[in-house]
Amino acid sequence: MTEVPFVDLAAAHAEVDRQVRAGFDRVLAKCAFVQGPDVAAFEREYAHFNGAQHAVGLANGTDALELALRALFHLRGTGPGAEVVLPANTFVATAEAVVRAGARPVLVDAEPADLLMDADLAAAAVTPATGAIVPVHLYGRLAPLERLLHLGPPVLEDAAQSQGAARDGRHLTGAIAATSFYPGKNLGAYGDAGAVVTGSAELARTVRLLRDHGSERKYEHEIVGFNSRLDTLQAVVLRAKLRRLEGWNEQRRAAAARYAELLAGIPGVVLPRPAGEEHVWHLYVVRVPRRDEVAARMGDLGIRVGIHYPVPVHLQPGFAYLGHGPGDFPVAEAAAGRILSLPMFPQITEEQQQRVADALRKALG
C-alpha cells in the first residue's frame, strides 16, 4: 500500500500545470526574468485577495519579516536595539528576522488552548523600548489581534501559515503583514518566495526600496537596501495557485472536519479546537502522549507526519544569549513534547484520512 504523504505537492501541481507552463513560456519568450510583468500582476492580485492596498513580492518569507520590521523602524525612527515582542512557540525565522533587523527578541508564552501567543503576556511585555509586536498566525488560525492593536507599538503579523484566514471577516489588521510562499504553504511557490501586505503606501514604498538595493531608479540609492526580489517565474506559479486558493482552503476545512470525526474519542489525543470558516488549516496539529514513539510508529505504518515545533525558540542554542532556560515558557515547552502534525493538503482523500486515524490508534495502543 502506498504511503500517505504529509503534503502532496504533486497533486497541487497537476491542477495548475497547464497555466504554469503557459506562464513560463510567456516569461521565457520575453526574457522578463527580474521584476517582470507577472510580479506586478501577482502583487495586485494578492493585495486584492487580502483586502489590502499594497503587496510587495520578496525572495522569501524570512526576508519579508525582516524588511517589514526595517520599514517600520525606518519610518518611525526606531533606533538600534529596540525590543520586539513575539511568541516562543514559532519557527525560528520569526526570531531570526528580529535579530537581523537589529532588534532584540522579547519572548512570551503561548496560551494553552490554541498555542498562539498569549495576548495578556504580550501586553505585559510591552515597554517604552518596544518597537513592534509580532503575533504569529499558527496552523491556519489568526492570533487575537484585537487584543494587541491598542497596545501602542505597531503590529507586524507573521502570516506565513494563514493565507486566506480571517478573523471577524478581516484577513489582516496590523500595520503590515509578512508571509512565506515556501512550497508547502497553503499558497506555495516552486521554491522560496515571500511578500508583505500593508495598507500603508509609505510602508510599501519603503519595502520596495529595501528589496532592490534601496533604489527606485537605477544607480540612485535612497537608502541602504538588499537584494530580495520575487522571482518572475515564482510569480507565475503563485498567480496560477492564487486563483485556486479559496477552493483549496475549503477542501482543507472539509478535511479538518473529517479528522475531527475520525479522531474523536481516541484516548490521550487532544484535538485542535474548531474555528469555523475563518480557519484555513495549514496544519492539523494534535497533541499525543509519547509523541516521538507515536510518530515513529506511524511512519512504520506508512503515514508521514510532522512536528511543528519540537524546540521552542528560547531553547535553541542560537538564542541562548537571551538568558532563558527550561521552565521559562511552560506552555510552549509542554506542547513541544506532545504536538504532532497529521497529513493535511487539499487533495487528501477520505480513505487516506481513515488510514491516518487507524494508524494513530495503533500507534497509541
UniProtKB/TrEMBL annotation:
<protein>
    <submittedName>
        <fullName>Erythromycin biosynthesis sensory transduction protein eryC1</fullName>
    </submittedName>
</protein>
<comment type="similarity">
    <text>Belongs to the DegT/DnrJ/EryC1 family.</text>
</comment>
<dbReference type="InterPro" id="IPR015424">
    <property type="entry name" value="PyrdxlP-dep_Trfase"/>
</dbReference>
<dbReference type="InterPro" id="IPR015421">
    <property type="entry name" value="PyrdxlP-dep_Trfase_major"/>
</dbReference>
<dbReference type="InterPro" id="IPR000653">
    <property type="entry name" value="DegT/StrS_aminotransferase"/>
</dbReference>
<dbReference type="GO" id="GO:0000271">
    <property type="term" value="P:polysaccharide biosynthetic process"/>
</dbReference>
<keyword id="KW-0663">Pyridoxal phosphate</keyword>
<dbReference type="Pfam" id="PF01041">
    <property type="entry name" value="DegT_DnrJ_EryC1"/>
</dbReference>
<dbReference type="GO" id="GO:0030170">
    <property type="term" value="F:pyridoxal phosphate binding"/>
</dbReference>
<dbReference type="InterPro" id="IPR015422">
    <property type="entry name" value="PyrdxlP-dep_Trfase_small"/>
</dbReference>
<dbReference type="GO" id="GO:0008483">
    <property type="term" value="F:transaminase activity"/>
</dbReference>
